[in-house]
Amino acid sequence: MSKSSPRSAKDSAPVHLEALTARIQRDFAHMTPQFQVGARHLLDFPLDVPVASMRKIAEQAGVQPATLVRLAKSLGYDGWQELKDVFVQSLQRSPERYADRARKLQHDRRAGNALGRAIGAQADNIRRIEAGNVERLPAALQLLSRARQVYVAGFRASFAAAFLFQYQYRLFRPSVTLLRGDAGTLEMELRALGKDDVVVIIGFAPYSREALRVAQAAQQAGSRVLAICDSAVAPIALNADCALLFSTDTPSFFPSSTAATALIELLIEQLLTKAGKQAVSRIEAAEEQLHQTGAYL
Q: pLDDT, tens digit, for every residue of 23-70?
């Protein structure tokens, strides 16, 4: 039997980005010019696909939205959403287990330069804050400044960052509440969410089930959601009104929280500059109370 095309009618839709890339590379020469333009754009800008609308991607690629739908079907998918899901899943894959990373760390022969590698990784993480958030930060500031009440959530390793956000923000804004979920009370706390509120959810992979529950409850209550996380396609960010991003890269076995802390400190600083003189008076009053009660030495 002769083959007129490298693509078979029995080809199934690729389920991983690597397989999709290989399929496009294999079939590219036999695609229509419009399909080639669309396919090239998807592979050149894979991080845009999970977070942008089909119309926006089509506009950036210079094709019609219908072209992307037809391209998806030609690759074996039912439609655009199924093709998009491949890009989403590629950024949501389970991270390497802590024990596996710890095992590699113990066998690393470069331990003598551990300090330099650690400092370099943390410095890179902090530098990435600007690149990832320069266009996102104004929307986050506006969202928080207009909120009736701000709720903050972060679980397990993300609790420290959530506590820091709540502690610093409450110094000049009383209407900030930390969602703790102690002793199984999370569902009770979530009942307080309202449509004029903003819920800040902080997290990084592997993602907490409780964080996703908070995001779902916020949407059900009509609250706005600000996700502070490690990926634009993190479960807590996919349906958020705004997302701020930080990197957790580290040569150690556990994801780094350094950039998350730096990003939160930056956010609180910018919120203070927008809050006016009353915010300074509240900080002054809080400091005075802490000194009078003996909280400070």
A: 998 888 899 999 999 998 898 788 788 888 999 999 999 999 999 999
Q: What is the dihedral of CA 25, 28, 34, 39, to 10 degrees?
A: -10
Assign domain 120-292 one CATH number from 3.40.50.10490, 3.10.20.340, 3.40.50.300, 3.40.718.10. 3.40.50.10490
Q: How far apart are CA 210 and CA 187, in angstroms?
A: 10
Both tokens of residue 85?
């899901």
The tokens for 143 are 């969202």
Quickly list DSSP for the chain: ---SSS--TTPPPPSSHHHHHHHHHHHGGGS-HHHHHHHHHHHH-TTTTTTS-HHHHHHHHTS-HHHHHHHHHHTT-SSHHHHHHHHHHHTSPPPPPHHHHHHHHHT-TTGGGHHHHHHHHHHHHHHHHHHHHTTTHHHHHHHHHT-SSEEEEE-GGGHHHHHHHHHHHHTT-S-EEEE--GGG-HHHHHTT--TT-EEEEEE-SSPPHHHHHHHHHHHHHT-EEEEEES-TTSTTTTT-SEEEE-----SSSS---HHHHHHHHHHHHHHHHHH-HHHHHHHHHHHHHHHHTT---
Query: Would you state the structure tokens that stand for residue 278, as one six-digit string?
Result: 């009353």
Q: Helices 114-133 and 258-275, interaxial angle, to 10°?
A: 40
Using an 8 Å Cβ cutoff, are 88 and 36 in contact? Answer: no
User: 17-90 in CATH: which number?
Assistant: 1.10.10.10
128 vs 131 pLDDT, higher one: 128
Cβ–Cβ under 8 Å, residues 203 and 234: yes
What's the start-to-end Cα distance of the chain, in Å?
Answer: 87
Q: Where in the chain is the domain with CATH 1.10.10.10?
A: 17-90
